[in-house]
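Input chain follows. Return structure tokens only.
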Amino acid sequence: MSEGPNVEHRSWLDRLSHFLAGEPEDRDDLLELLRDAEKRGLIETEALAMIEGVMQVSELRVRDIMIPRAQMVVVPQDAQLETILSLVAESAHSRYPVIAEDRTEVVGVLLVKDLLVHSLRDRQRPVRDIMRPAQFVPENKRLNVLLRECRTNRSHMAIVVDEYGAAAGLVTIEDVLEQIVGEIEDEHDFGDEEYIFRKSDHEFTLKALTPIEEFNEYFGTDWSDDAHDTIGGLIVHRLGHVARRGEKVDIGPFSFTVLRADSRRVYMLKLVRLAAGEGVSDAGRGD
């Protein structure tokens, strides 16, 4: 009677051997086999999620995850270093596209580490003097190819160009890796137990997983959590699709901007209290 589990184990191994001996009929067959292995405890859930992410990366293209041009934080090449310090401090990125004087062309990339070193010596120096060459990639490049090129070139950011050679957006190596491993937290993220971070009296950063109940308690609102448990869920419902970085939604007296998201979910939001009369709806009430 003790033979049952062994027979079941051998059955799965037989299926695995059969798979390895030939080729899977399609992607779904492969995923089914992997998910079956996860259910049996042969691979961990996180490992399965990463494998699925790798498979997704091989299918996605740069245009699927890029930050659109309109949402890029850029610096002019003729700007003096001292004039962009506040912008860099507020946006907290490590790299910035540098644009030409006519604002139609990306001409380089500014690294914050270069900015810090040179601003200590000469704050009147123009950005063009310290910017580095930019890497350009087409919109239709596959993410797995881009990842390989970034590793080879040791680059962390690329400017995405359309079929006419004009800048359409940007993509970072972190954006690609997050498709595989999920959100990558950095030094600007806050603790696991915290959902809401106050930056000023009218500006906040919050996790998309913030429970609506906790949001109500913090901001004194009375939004319903009947249809959505989290603020991220409410935002996605309002947009009608998985939010992309930079998208904005105004709800009641608040304006939400997506700070971090991938093709599967939203992670981080910026919240700004609107002035009286600016809100578009009192939302969240069982919608």
